[in-house]
Write a structure and sequence with these properties.
Strand order of the largest sheet: 1-3-2
CATH class of the largest domain: Mainly Alpha
Strand content: 5-15%
Order of helices and strands: EHHEEHHHH
CATH architecture of the largest domain: Orthogonal Bundle
Number of domains: 2
Low-confidence stretches: 136-140
Distance between the termini: 71 Å
Mean pLDDT: 88
Shape: elongated
Oligomer: single chain
């Protein structure tokens, strides 16, 4: 007979809080558990593995919607493995784009910092001047 756990027990074993567990249940990331006559939820041990899957996928940047799709794929055939690989490739493209955007932000911030180090020609902070829209509004 498979081991079952009450809500608090399964949450603790899976490393999440009870609210997260219920949220996952509401979003159908984990199956609805059986209920005891008293109304308490009884979760199968498999729920722990499923939550670990969710947490690991989140660490890799997958959204809950994407995780739900990944959970629906069973690891039985090479075709399914290729499907998961496709999801990974798509996520890699998203991550690469985010890195590019973050690099652009970093470059812009460094440029503003250099302008500040050089000092404003009119005595005004070049960073604030830029944030106010360049030379249009000389507020500071």
């Amino acid at each position: 007979m498979e081991r079952t756990f009450l809500t608090g027990q399964i949450a603790k074993k899976a490393g999440v809080n009870v609210e997260t567990l219920r949220f996952y249940e509401k979003k159908r990331l984990i199956p609805e558990p059986m209920r005891m006559e008293s109304g308490y939820r009884k979760y199968p041990e498999e729920t722990i593995h499923r939550i670990q899957f969710i947490k690991n996928a989140q660490k890799l940047g997958f959204t809950l919607k994407e995780i739900k799709e990944l959970l629906s794929i069973t690891l039985v055939t090479k075709k399914q493995c290729q499907q998961v690989k496709g999801e990974i490739d798509h996520k890699l493209m998203e991550v690469d784009e985010k890195i590019k955007q973050l690099q652009e932000i970093s470059d812009a911030l460094k440029s503003l910092r250099r302008k500040c180090d050089e000092g404003g020609v009119d005595g005004k902070c070049p960073i604030l001047k830029f944030l106010y829209g360049g030379n249009k509004n000389d507020k500071d």
